[in-house]
Specification:
Layout lengths: L11 E5 L3 H13 L3 E6 L3 H10 L4 E2 L3 H5 L6 E4 L3 H13 L3 E4 L7 H14 L3 E3 L7 H11 L6 E10 L11 H4 L3 H16 L5 E10 L2 E2 L10 E8 L4 E8 L7 E9 L3 E6 L7 E7 L2 E6 L8 H12 L5 H17 L3
Parallel strand pairs: 1-2, 1-4, 2-3, 4-5, 5-6, 7-11
Antiparallel strand pairs: 7-12, 8-9, 8-10, 10-11, 12-13, 13-14, 14-15
Helix pairs in contact: 1-2, 1-9, 4-5, 5-10, 8-10
């Protein structure tokens, strides 16, 4: 089940963007909480028609501005192209709504800081759909690390290779996306690593970015489709990241986050190239202990948790806001910004 506990208070939500991802998040929230879809905005009529089948009582608004102006909304779920995330999140927060936004929250750390400040001033909850945190597999890895079961972490290996790539042109425009495969895929794993290590200061970042096999000298010309990044924390922990689009991986995807500690190791990884099925393992020498296996209905869980947190406290969350900024600052350094 997606929901970790039943919600008891009905919230009124608006949905900005109900394409495949936006609709998936909306359906998860409606199916696993008592929240109601009151209004939605979507420029594509096929998408909006499909969404209204699940949100039968929702009113279709003609523009984001009309959605923000709805006074009875408690929160807004944003699933639009990346270039719009920061501005739309700030507008929603300033209009008194909590926000659940697809990643990235902003194309740069500066944009993320502006959204966080809007959340602080409005005293409204801000959340980002960093969905892998909410998989049962990674929760097992996180708990293993936090309990000290594999000792002190000294190295982390992160991989996200996608044999395909985005099918929308805006992903390949740096001004719209903020970056290529690192911004699209790598950000998930950077977040997992930093979160698991309790967000240490990152003392050094070295990155090599490629476009169609050619090393990029200016990321402004092209977005990267392959990245190799070496990071070092202030605690001398090594964090290595590789990610790509359109790579010859021999399967649909390779997704892994492996942690090496003084007492053992632990790994979160996909199974058989799947984008959805994940397994958690703990290692000691040559021995492997399987912690979690599929199935796990995780894809909409972050939105469900956001609703649950709104019911408990719909105000500004300093801890998560600080984490959003720290991750964005690391991403900026990967791009040399």
């Amino acid at each position: 089940m997606i929901a970790t506990r039943p919600t008891t208070k009905s919230l009124s939500l608006g949905f900005l963007g109900v394409g495949w991802i936006g609709r998936n998040r909306m359906e998860a929230i409606l199916n696993h909480t008592t929240a109601e879809a009151t209004a939605l905005t979507e420029p594509n009529s096929e998408n909006s028609d499909e969404a209204l089948k699940s949100a039968k009582n929702a009113v279709l608004k003609t523009s984001p501005e009309a959605l923000f102006a709805e006074e009875n909304l408690d929160g807004i779920v944003i699933a639009t192209p990346s270039a719009m995330h920061a501005e739309q999140s700030m507008h929603a927060l300033k209009s008194g709504k909590a926000v659940f936004c697809q990643k990235p929250l902003g194309r740069t750390a500066e944009e993320v800081k502006q959204v966080v400040e809007a959340s602080r001033k409005a005293d409204k909850l801000l959340a980002v759909d960093l969905s892998y945190r909410y998989t049962e597999a990674f929760k097992a890895i996180y708990n293993t690390i936090q309990k000290g079961e594999i000792g002190d972490i000294f190295a982390v290996d992160l991989k996200f290779h996608n044999a395909y790539g985005p099918d929308k042109e805006w992903f390949y425009d740096i001004n719209c996306s903020g970056g290529g495969c690192v911004m699209d895929l790598g950000i998930h794993l950077v977040d997992l690593a930093l979160w698991s290590l309790n967000f240490p200061e990152i003392s050094e970042v070295k990155s090599q970015l490629y476009h169609k096999g050619q090393k990029l000298t200016s990321f402004e010309e092209h977005v990267e489709d392959f990245a190799s990044v070496a990071m070092t924390s202030g605690k001398d922990q090594t964090i290595n990241l590789e990610c790509s689009w359109h790579v010859s991986a021999g399967k649909d995807a390779i997704i892994e986050a492996t942690f090496y500690g003084t007492k053992g190791g632990a790994s979160f990884r996909n199974i058989n190239g799947s984008f959805y099925d994940f397994q958690a393992e703990k290692y000691h020498g040559t021995q492997t202990e399987t912690l979690v296996t599929p199935p796990d209905e995780w894809s909409g869980r972050a939105g469900v948790v956001w609703v649950e947190n709104m019911i408990k406290n719909n105000g500004f969350d300093e801890q998560s806001a600080t984490e959003f900024i720290k991750t964005a600052e690391v991403i900026d350094r990967i791009y040399g910004r």
